[in-house]
């Protein structure tokens, strides 16, 4: 069994770096996610006793003092750090410029969703999961969709 300090890569691509005891995460360690986020924690025989998640853009999740997108302040984290863009220039996602969504798909936050196949792939087009009915409806209702661009001229009113 693994013991001491080391690293272990899970089949999902997530990597653990830290202390191991009897084959379990034990002591200080960090999970590095393929999406760029990380979770630093103190582990006790494979169970987290305390930890903090940091998103890929540097935003740290604070369970007790979470103020990001709380209903009163709807700014993206990059807007909090760098300020607003000039009027007339929208910022549609925290990532600016936003990812270009493939035709007929939705940007669901961790990748693209194709409602025809009901498959979510990451931004590099690697399979993540199949969406169940609940997630399918949520994505269609709330997520940003690829623009449908037509070439025909519409008459002015």
UniProtKB/TrEMBL annotation:
Highest taxon above the source species: Eukaryota
Coiled-coil ranges from the UniProt annotation: none
Localisation per UniProt entry: Cell projection, Cilium, Flagellum
Keywords assigned: Cell projection, Cilium, Flagellum, Repeat
InterPro entries, alphabetized: MORN, Morn5
One CC-aspect GO term: motile cilium
Cross-referenced SUPFAM superfamilies: Histone H3 K4-specific methyltransferase SET7/9 N-terminal domain
Main localization of the protein described in the UniProt heading: other
PANTHER family, per the entry: MORN REPEAT-CONTAINING PROTEIN 5
Name of the molecule in the record: MORN repeat-containing protein 5
Organism (species): Sylvia atricapilla (blackcap)
